[in-house]
UniProtKB/TrEMBL annotation:
Classification of source organism: Bacteria, Bacillati, Bacillota, Clostridia, Peptostreptococcales
Domain of life of the source: Bacteria
Keywords: Membrane, Transmembrane, Transmembrane helix
Database matches in InterPro entries: DUF212 (IPR003832)
Alphabetical list of Pfam families matching this protein: DUF212
Parts of the chain that traverse the membrane: 6-26, 38-59, 65-84
Name of protein: Divergent PAP2 family protein
UniProt keyword Membrane, yes or no: yes
Length: 142
């Protein structure tokens, strides 16, 4: 089990994810620092994209960009980024619409309902910046 803490590729990929998550506290729509954003999904930059692209870059540098291992991590990264900007983004838009319907229905008189989480997915721009962050970290740290 201690070997996992010596896996440089894994540790730096996790760092890339946490760095992207940390940067979110400065990138909210409100244009102010919001510490709560460090634990949310969605937002700028995409920590999922940063995580998987950093992983793919490290595997590419370590095993070669023509290797099967790189191909696997690159495909994995593309699937994660597609999901982040497609499926999860759609779920967030549906949550936003449902929350508006509930607000309109109750005209603010009913405060007992729980709002759905609206910031679930990413815009293509957020995915791109997360991916670029992961690539940069992969290059700098390799």
């Amino acid at each position: 089990m201690t070997d996992i803490f010596q896996n440089r590729i894994l540790l730096i990929s996790i760092f890339s994810c946490f760095l992207a998550q940390f940067l979110k506290i400065f990138t909210g729509k409100e244009k102010r620092i919001d510490l709560k954003r460090i634990i949310i999904s969605g937002g700028m930059p995409s920590s999922h994209s940063s995580f998987v692209t950093s992983l793919a870059m490290f595997v590419g540098f370590d095993k070669g960009f023509a290797s099967t291992e790189f191909a696997i991590t690159a495909v994995f990264a593309l699937i994660v980024m597609y999901d982040a900007s497609g499926v999860r983004r759609a779920v967030g838009k549906q949550a936003e619409l449902l929350n508006q319907i509930v607000d309109d229905f109750f005209h603010g008189k009913f405060d007992q309902h729980e709002k759905l989480k609206e910031l679930v997915g990413h815009t293509p721009k957020e995915v791109l910046f997360g991916a670029l962050l992961g690539i940069i970290i992969g290059i700098v740290m390799s």
